[in-house]
Automatic annotation (TrEMBL):
<dbReference type="GO" id="GO:0030245">
    <property type="term" value="P:cellulose catabolic process"/>
</dbReference>
<dbReference type="InterPro" id="IPR001547">
    <property type="entry name" value="Glyco_hydro_5"/>
</dbReference>
<keyword id="KW-0119">Carbohydrate metabolism</keyword>
<feature type="domain" description="Glycoside hydrolase family 5">
    <location>
        <begin position="83"/>
        <end position="324"/>
    </location>
</feature>
<dbReference type="GO" id="GO:0008422">
    <property type="term" value="F:beta-glucosidase activity"/>
</dbReference>
<keyword id="KW-0326">Glycosidase</keyword>
<keyword id="KW-0378">Hydrolase</keyword>
<dbReference type="GO" id="GO:0005576">
    <property type="term" value="C:extracellular region"/>
</dbReference>
<comment type="similarity">
    <text>Belongs to the glycosyl hydrolase 5 (cellulase A) family.</text>
</comment>
<protein>
    <recommendedName>
        <fullName>Glycoside hydrolase family 5 domain-containing protein</fullName>
    </recommendedName>
</protein>
<dbReference type="InterPro" id="IPR017853">
    <property type="entry name" value="GH"/>
</dbReference>
<keyword id="KW-0136">Cellulose degradation</keyword>
<dbReference type="InterPro" id="IPR050386">
    <property type="entry name" value="Glycosyl_hydrolase_5"/>
</dbReference>
<dbReference type="GO" id="GO:0009986">
    <property type="term" value="C:cell surface"/>
</dbReference>
<dbReference type="Pfam" id="PF00150">
    <property type="entry name" value="Cellulase"/>
</dbReference>
<keyword id="KW-0624">Polysaccharide degradation</keyword>
Amino acid sequence: MMERMETASDHTVTGFVRADGTRLVNGAGQEILLRGVGLGNWLLPEGYMWKFPEEGDRPRKIERMVEHLIGPDKAADFWALYWERYTTEADIKQIAAEGFNSIRLPINARFLLEDEEEPLRIQNDRLAYIDRLIEWCKKHRLYIILDLHGAPGGQTGAIIDDSARNLPELFTEEKNRRLTIELWRLLAERYKDEWIVAGYDLLNEPLPDWFSAYNDQLMPLYKELIAAIREVDSRHMIILEGAHWATDWSIFTEKTDDNLMLQFHKYWSNPDTESLQAYLHKREEWKVPIFMGEGGENNDDWYVGAFQLLEDHCISWNFWPWKKMDTGNSPCSITMPADWSKLVRYLEGGEQPDTAVAEQILWEFLDNIQFERCTYQAHVVRALFRRAPLRIPAIFYGNQGEGVSFGRTAKTENQLGFRVQDGTGIGFEEGGEPRHNYWHGRGQSEQRVFVQLEPGDWLAYQFTVVRSGEHRLRIKLFPVEESVTAAITANGKHIGNIMASDVGKWQTAELVLHNLAPGQVKLIIQAEVQPLKLEWVEMI
């Protein structure tokens, strides 16, 4: 197990980031973890973040809709304002103020190119948006990862890469391969001296498994892209993603550079060590740092579990996305314009709004996308950093193994398919489901889950406290046989006991914590004489 890094060290954003064995280090040689957010939906709009149906699911479809509704001249005005307002310095300032140290910038090649033909022709006014973002990141001390989210022709053949025909034509048209190589050479030449750029993420989520017939082309293409970059830039880190939504690392057969980081993505899956095992093994085999480059689109409970899991395994991470429309699970929620449903119905084949109505709806949207007009949801950020006030589901105790994150007197069989190797007593409160699941938008199954502690068993939970003074600890627990007592320890010091006497019923008990200092708090809950079940732990 690698030694877990404290959050405070992550505020050192200085000098070129590079791989040093399994670690990331900054320009001063200090080890860092990247903790960031993805600026999705800006330079590559994604229809689901606009609440659009399939007919408006990617940039080229949204662009066609806008132009058809208001004409080419006003459409050009719309997009100029969209790019100007969607991500501003106010966003970057807030990201830094929250304690993040990095951002990942998804780029659509079609946004930058004059057209999709050879030779490569760049729109320099579009590059200016990236240039300006880099300057903001320098000012507010945030590393930036350049992510080719939509390569020429499309590397995924899906919504996310703006593909024209739902095919990964990067791998079927030689022209697209050459354009991609030239584009990365150009970007590397332009940004080779920008230390604030942490690395180059060469292709986002290439080749889902239904296009796996092209998998044997992926590593050869990566090698060509790296060679082109290294012709002009020897200092920036290269970031490679696996196939099939970045999760299939079987394609990594040859370590192709000495300054390399491997990236996976994590959505709607168990937040446990077993889910990371293939990535942890590859980290040790290749002696490279690894990066969870996209994870999110769920709820606070899942975030609490998943992002602490990454921290405990010293894995850099990036939350997806920072901002989208009418949401409860991203930090910034864009208010949906009053008549937005008219655009949705039009895309679905309904009545076309007249030009004046469409323009009014779209310009209201342009007003609403600005950071100052968004609804800010601090609870999402608190979940990512385990920052009080916060509730942690009991199943998300630490991930550093027996003796550090939990102690048990005997191993328990776990039938839920979650944290099986720990051998702790995890179960559903009311039964009925054979396995735990983490579907889209939900942090856990609809059945509530508990951990049972036998006498002497204990679990450790990590909180971040931001203010000194008095806090309240609340625990939901269930005495199994008799009245129970749980001993509470904070950072190695016994601070009190929590008791519950209503046998056979779930109840909430509370303990006042005095004189907690700001910083990390490791809280240990230990069953004493009688067994008990835990559902959640809350610090207020």
